[in-house]
Structures are given as structure tokens and as C-alpha cells.
User: What shape does this take?
Amino acid sequence: MHLAFDRFAQGDSGIHRMDTRLKLVGFGSFLVATAWVTTWPSAFAALAAAGFWVGYAGFPWAFVVRRIRMPFFFLSSFLMILPFSHPDGPGAGAIQACVILLKGMAMILTIFPMFGTAPLDISMKTLEGLKVSSKFVAMILFTFRYFSVYSDELQTIRHVFRSRGFKPGFDLHSARTVGYLVGSLLVRSLDQTERIYQSMLCRGYRGRMVTLYDFSPIRREDQYRFGLLILISMGLVALDKLI
Assistant: This one.
């Protein structure tokens, strides 16, 4: 499974070496704490912590920025909406919009060290080991996989269109061509999805993750890292209560 995250799954940082079970639970607690906070200082602290972990794990910032660009633009739209629609006035609306933006970006950045520092199949197997529903795990796995499939198909079709001299514009021809592109993308992706599903059935897939990976005993240094994540998560909530 050739996914963008898997490019950085074999690093040598402390997060890479951390036991996957403790890593997912620790970062999961941080995500819950980040979603819980309601003040901008605690949301900013969560963003700073998430940014530190991304850098510590060795993710190139150019790679990260390309992938958080669209969520950033979407969350930034609240800065133009809430100041004019908040019942407590523009100031309260702007503050709430900033909190939403900071929290959203912190949670998105946390996904990189949480799932990008181990192969995806191992992370999914870990979730099953933590008693997460196998259907939910399969949904996450297929979502990642089909994003990759759709992206590859879209790039192929775009190259074909460019080779034929197509230049998009605001006219009927461009709209019709884009419609053909979307339709072709859906048809090609649907065909490839069916082939992927049949190949999975041929390899014995029955709704559960099966890998040759065995979990090793939890080391003391992993316990320390896990404890640090829990303390940071608790610190965020405490900071939010104090402000």
C-alpha cells in the first residue's frame, strides 16, 4: 500500500521507536484534550505542542504544509463568518474563530506523528488490539487507501488533458470538460476499487486486519514518553480551566 505517510514510517526519532499501542493512546488523549479546550491560550499551546512533535518526528515541513493547506483555508473561513454572526459581538466571534482555527490545525498536525511514524497496517492492527471496532478500522484503512487511488487516477487524467492542450477557463467548454474528467475519474476508480476488493478476498480478507507483526514488550522509555503525553494532555485541560 503506497501511501504518502508511509514514506516517513521508518524514521529513527523517539516517536518512531515508541510502542504503537502507547503512541496511539497517548496521542489520542491529546486529541481529546485539544477538542475539550475552549480558550485561545490553551488552543495555541496545543498547536505549539503538535508542531513540535511534527518537527521532532522528522516530517519535512514542505510535505506537511502541502497537506494542511486546504484544511487551513477551510478553517480560516470562520474568521470571516463568526465576527459578523456571533451573538456576543465581533470581538467574541473573532476569538471563537481563532480557537476553532488553532484547535483544528493542532489536531490535524497531531495526525502526522500519530499515524505517520509507523506503517499504516501496523497502526490499524494496533487499533484492533485496543478493541476498536473492526468495521471502524476497516473504514479508516479504506479511506486512506482510496484517497491514494483517487489521487493517482486524478493525476493520470490531468496529464492526459494537459497533453491534449486543455486549459481550464470560465466557459461552457471548460465546464463540460471538467464534467467529463469527474465522470471518468469515478468510473475508473470504481473499476479499480472492485479489482482491489477482489484481490483482498483472494488473499483471505474477512473483515479483520491480518499481519505478521507481533507486538514487543513495552519498554520503560516508552512508558516515560506515554506518561509525558498524558501529562501534556492533562496540562492543556488544566490551563483551560485556569484561564
Observations:
- The chain has a mean pLDDT of 83.
